[in-house]
Every structure is written in C-alpha cells, then in structure tokens.
Design brief:
Blueprint lengths: L1 E10 L2 E11 L4 E5 L6 H9 L6 E6 L2 E3 L4 H7 L1 E4 L11 H5 L6 E2 L2 E2 L1 H14 L16 H12 L6 E5 L7 H16 L3 E5 L3 H7 L2 E6 L2 E7 L5 H9 L3 H11 L8 H7 L1
Parallel strand pairs: 3-10, 3-11, 6-9, 9-10
Antiparallel strand pairs: 1-2, 1-4, 4-5, 7-8, 11-12
Helix pairs in contact: 5-6, 9-10
C-alpha cells in the first residue's frame, strides 16, 4: 500500500534520516520503534507531508507519488493521528469528528446527520463513550484517543499513522486503544504505530521496523521474534553481548576476559 524508498532528511548539519526503507501492506500493523532521536517523528512527518524528504521516493500502491503537503497525503488516503490529538476540548464529540468538514443543508449545519454518522462510526469501531454530545474535555484519555482515531477514518483512508497512541494512558485505557487498532486491521487498513512500549508492540504488531540514528536497523516479523531481539536492535547491542551481561550478573566463570569488556561496550 505504502512504501518508502531511500528516504533521507537533513536539518542543517544534522542528518536526521539516511536511506530509510519502510513498507506497509493492507490489513497489517507495522510498529516503528527506536530510541529518542532515532528519526521516528521525522519519518512520520515525511509520510504525512509535513516535512517532505530531501531524497528518496514515496510509493503509493506501487507508483511513485509526491507528498509535499498534508492535503496531498490525505488525498492519497493517509491519515495521521499525532500524539497531541489536536482535539478541541470545548467542542462535543460530534463537533470534533466533523471539525473542518461539517455537513450543511441549504447553508445550515446539518446537526442531525452529523450526529447520526458519528453514532454509526463509533458503533462500528465499538468505541464506548457516554454521549456524542458531551464536551471532549470530560472524556478519559483512552476515549479521547479513540475519538481522534475515529475522526481520521471519516475520510476513508487506507493507511493510518498513530503517533504514540498509548502514551500516558492507564492499563484499561491502553487496552481500549489496542482493541481499536485490532479493528483497524480487521477493516483492511494498513496501520503504522509509533510506540516506546514494547508490550503494546508485541501485542498488536505484525512487523516491527527499528530505526537507530536515522537508519534502518532491522525489520522483524513478530512471530518468532523476542522482545529482547528488538531491544537489542534499538540500542545497537548484539544478542551475544546481552547474553554475556546476563551471565556476568549471574557470576558465570570466565566472563572477566575481553568478551566481558565487549559486552559492556
């Protein structure tokens, strides 16, 4: 559905991305992980058209496309939900869902139709909120995140990008959001989820793409991949180094030589 080929991005003297490759297929959840400064946010902005790449190609359904502006990404079918959600606390759920794309009849807001569509959309996604007419400010963090994701689906996108969707959420609220990600997969959408939470990644992702210092550092299929392997790719460690550290903590004999120093490095 979406492919990035050889994406590079520079900010002055800082090389943020170098020859990054990424693919997202229909009905697939891809997790993008990496340490702070790895280039995840820069890559998201490239996909969303907020910060176009200096080099490389964006392919949509197998053909090269130009994504230099957010409206170009939206026209293709790419929806992005940023970490700050961009919700208006003083508006109700209906007002937030249709903000900027309000329905009108004879020049007057069609509140009845917008409310009907809002209820239908939330029911389809199994999003539970007290009412579509209460201010968003009164919703929980998980409910607010769900409303932001639901709003992105009004344009019928084919790829949804979620930037840290479970950050600062409790256990129950996180479960609600992860259930919603599962429903996006069931609808056949390609989903890119950026997260620091390895438990969330292992729970919902089909594949994990690791960025380290602005470069690809491995792509893993979740079946058959351990959380430790992904963390090793994020930090730049090797499996052998991790094993040696564990052995050293356990007091294994013979770990005082050169191998031990390499493990510390």
């Amino acid at each position: 559905m979406l492919a990035l080929r050889g994406i590079s991005k520079r900010f002055g003297a800082v090389q943020a991305l170098t020859d990054v490759e990424l693919e997202i297929r229909p009905g697939e959840v891809v997790a993008l992980v990496g340490d702070n400064g790895a280039g995840k946010s820069t890559l998201v902005k490239t996909i969303a058209g907020v910060g176009p790449a200096d080099e490389g190609t964006v392919e949509w359904e197998g053909r090269p496309v130009t994504v230099d502006r957010p409206h170009q990404a939206q026209a293709l079918g790419i929806a992005t939900v940023y970490q700050d959600l961009a919700l208006c606390d003083n508006l109700d759920v209906v007002g937030n869902l249709f903000l900027g794309r309000e329905l009108t009849t004879a020049g007057v807001l069609d509140e009845v139709e917008m409310e009907r569509r809002s209820r239908e959309l939330l029911a389809t996604l199994a999003i539970r909120i007290p009412s579509v007419r209460i201010p968003v400010a009164s919703l929980s963090g998980g409910q607010r995140q769900s409303v932001a994701i639901a709003r992105s689906l009004l344009g019928e996108p084919k790829v949804v990008v979620l930037d840290e969707p479970t950050a600062a959420l409790g256990v129950e609220q996180t479960a609600q959001v992860l259930d919603l990600v599962e429903r996006l997969r069931e609808r056949g959408l390609g989903t890119l989820i950026i997260s620091h939470n390895m438990a969330d990644v292992m729970a919902v992702a089909d594949r994990v793409a690791v960025l380290r210092l602005g470069r690809n550092n491995g792509t893993f299929d979740i079946p058959g991949t351990t959380q430790q392997q992904i963390i090793s790719a994020i930090t730049g460690a090797t499996d052998n180094a991790v094993t040696r550290r564990r052995a050293r903590r356990g007091g294994t004999a013979g770990d005082d030589g050169p191998d031990s120093a390499e493990g510390q490095a």
